[in-house]
Amino acid sequence: MHKTTGFLRTNRRFVRLVQYVNNIVRYEDVDTMASKTVQHPPVRRLRTMKANWTTWSPFQSPEVRDICAHMTDAERARLAGRGSGYGLWVAVTLAMPLAFAFSYRSLGAIVTAAVLVTVHLICTPIWQKQQKRFLCSTDWARERGITPDRLRMFAFRT
How far apart (Å, rounded) are the C-alpha atoms in residues 142 and 70? Predict the structure, then answer.
């Protein structure tokens, strides 16, 4: 049996399915299609997502969620810039080096990836401290006396 036989058989089934669907859509009356109403189930909101989706994080503590929900537009824009910078930092020091190390499997790529991943791991607590300072510097957090040493960043930490 040839290797492509299974692929051709699957491909023929797919083509027949597409032709069948096209015939149904082509011959159905346009007025009846327009008169059909689709009943969608009601959308339920997650209780954990009270803030704007641009500042939402899966493990965000309630305190951080409240701070993000009360940010001004300028503070939110600054936070978005910080998030973009962190995304670039993760790409350069973690994702790309690991991808190159796994792709090329040369000693130079593996050593470079190990060094950059180590730098990333060392700098992550520094980034978290800076993020706490930024969140506590917002108007809403200052009004409430929230300080970086009392702010929980993650919901699962005590």
Answer: 12
Query: How many structural domains is the chain composed of?
Result: 1
SS3 60: strand
Average pLDDT over residues 95-119: 93
Beta-bridge mates of residue 60: 154
Mean pLDDT of the chain: 78
Does residue 32 belong to any structural domain of this protein? no
> Looking at the domain assignment, is residue 47 inside a domain?
no
Residue 151 lies in a domain: no
- The 10s digit of each residue's pLDDT in 14-51 is 666 666 655 554 444 444 555 555 455 554 444 444 44
Give the residue among 82, 124, 126, 105 at the shortest CA–CA distance from 97. 105
pLDDT tens-digit series, residues 108-131: 999 999 999 999 999 999 999 999
CA distances from 157 to 60, 128, 149, 150, 152 (A): 10, 14, 13, 12, 7
Q: What CA–CA distance (Å, rounded) separates 151 from 149?
A: 6
Domain, as residue range, for 93: 53-143
For residue 97, is it within any domain?
yes
